[in-house]
Amino acid sequence: MGLKVKIDRMPRKKIPGSSIIYLPSGKYLKYAASGYSSLLADIIYLWSIQYYSDYNISDRFDYLDHIFSIIAELDPHYLDPYEIGAIIAVYEAKNFDKAFKILDRGLEKNPDEWIFPFQAGHYAQMIKKDYELAQKYYKKAMEIKGSPALIQRLYANAAFKATDFQTAWKNWVEIYQTAKDERIKKIASNHLYQVKAAIDIQAIEGAIKRHIEHYGHNPLNLAQLVREGMLNSLPQDLDGKDYVYDPDTGKVKSATIPWKR
Amino acid sequence: MKIIAIAFNTFKEAIRDRILYLLFFFAAISIIFSRVLALLTVGDRIKIIRDVGLASLSFFGVLMAILIGTGLVYKEIDKKTIYSLLSKPINRYQFLLGKFFGLIFTLFIMLLLMSFIYLVLVFFHTFEIEWETFPTIFFIFLELCLITAVAIFFSCFSTPILSSVFSLAFYIIGHFSWGLETLINKIKPGVGKTLVQILYIFIPDLENFNFKTEIVHNLPIPSHVYLFSISYGIFYTLFILLLAMLVFRRRDFI
Amino acid sequence: MESVLTIKDLHKSFKIGFIPRKKKILNGITLSVNKGEIFGYLGPNGAGKTTTIKCILGLIFPEKGEITILGQHYLSLRAKENIGFLPENPYFYDYLTASEFLSFYARLFRIDKRKKEEKIKKLLYQLRLEQSVNLQLRKFSRGMLQRLGLAQALLNDPSLIFLDEPLGGLDPIGRKEIRDIIVEFKEEGKTVFLSSHILQDIELICNRVAIIVNGEIVNQGNIQDLISEKIYFTEITLSGVDRKILEALGESVSIHGERILLKVFDQDKVESVLKLIRSNNGKVYSLMPRTQTLEDYFVGVVKQK
Question: How far apart are CA A25 and CA A32, in angstroms?
Answer without folding.
Answer: 11
